DNA sequence: TTCTTGTCACCTAGGTGTTAATAT
DNA sequence: ATATTAACACCTAGGTGACAAGAA
């Protein structure tokens, strides 16, 4: 009962081998991890959270000549893993289900000493994002948090953490699909990945669409 | 146990006769209504909210020759009054008390048909903002919301709703103290209301100060 | 070599009062 | 006359990859 938003875009990145930038100050993910939930108890309260688990115990390096990732040794030591709690938590099932849930406040960092609550990852390592729905039992109940949570894994959201993009095709797809990178687009406005980008923007607009849409009459 | 933030700035506006812009799309207040709370039960849950009550039953008009507000008749009919719930609600007393509570998402409108949940006011009328702390009883308790809320009124936050500023001194004070109006400042950077503005910015920074402050060395 | 860091121009997104045009 | 609206230039605030310099 959790559906990944923007799945076509995730798939396109996944096919190329998704990379996510990590910086000292913290960098958002793109695509943003967004899900739609259903089947919750409308009246019950839930906490929503994400964490990131290593895909394997390896360190990678990008071979430019073959345009592919190759193993470069054992994994570096890991920091105590962090969990990102969705800032709207806790909220009722009804509130979570009536809109797309976006983790756009989540940031990735390679700073082991990070003091901002960001997710700490090792560059040149592979990670799998996980999404957790935690049921909050009423206070009078004795139940511990035994089986009161569900975990969702979308394998198409796995990625390699990098400090700079390695695969040039990933760079181009980011530029083509991330609105904030519009300044680096070469071709005519909205070219190349038009379909995916338009789909994305439409979905994001639906999410925030509370104000009356203003129909602008194009002047002749 | 509620302290108004930026009180010196509010006082300065109040002395001149505070005006707040209302627009069809909704306009934020400036100064922003911000309070600090103490004395709550750290573990209990509270909803925080604001509403706006008419100061009197009159309509006003600004007499430019005497630079003062004069009564212009009886009040216009009122829309059903709306309440703005702080978007972080509900939250525990502990969460509310550990930081300044800012109502910067609150917007004022003169559109009687507003569909965005903004506060509807009549232009050229006077209003008194009110702040409410609502105690949320645990679900097993039978208590109704009888006396489970407290209301705070800061008379220095009262204002006249306008569609365009009437008192030129109010305009100048807004330009001097609102960072978003910096483009209209004449004099040298940070002149005139330096003290108040600096105080404001320092307080707002304290509130969000989680990242390590980066000391920039000014170059010679 | 390979990877990381900091700065930058260029965007998105949205909050200001001004101004001219339009209601009322 | 007086009050309202919409477009606008100019800001704040912050998210992009490019690039040059630095580090391992």
End-to-end distance of chain A: 48 Å
Overall geometry of chain A comes to globular
Order of helices and strands of chain A: EHEEEEEEEEHEEEEEEHH
| Structural class by helix and strand composition of chain A | alpha+beta
Number of helices of chain A: 4
The amount of helix of chain A comes to 10-25%
Q: Largest interface by residue count?
A: A-B, 10 and 10 residues
- Give the total of beta strands of chain A: 15
Computed over alpha carbons, the radius of gyration of chain A is 19 Å
Low-confidence stretches of chain A: 190-220
> Main β-sheet of chain A, in a few words?
7 strands, mixed
Average pLDDT reading of chain A: 85
Multimer state: homodimer
Describe the structure.
2 copies of one chain form a homodimer. Chain A has 4 helices and 15 strands. Chain A is an alpha+beta fold and 220 residues long. Chain A has helices at 7-16, 93-97, 168-177, 194-208; strands spanning 2-4, 19-21, 27-28, 34-37, 45-54, 58-63, 68-74, 84-85, 91-92, 101-102, 107-109, 119-120, 126-136, 149-153, 159-162. The model of chain A is unreliable at 190-220 (pLDDT under 50). At the A-B interface, loops of A face loops of B.
Short description:
The structure is a homodimer of 220-residue chains. Chain A is an alpha+beta fold and 220 residues long.
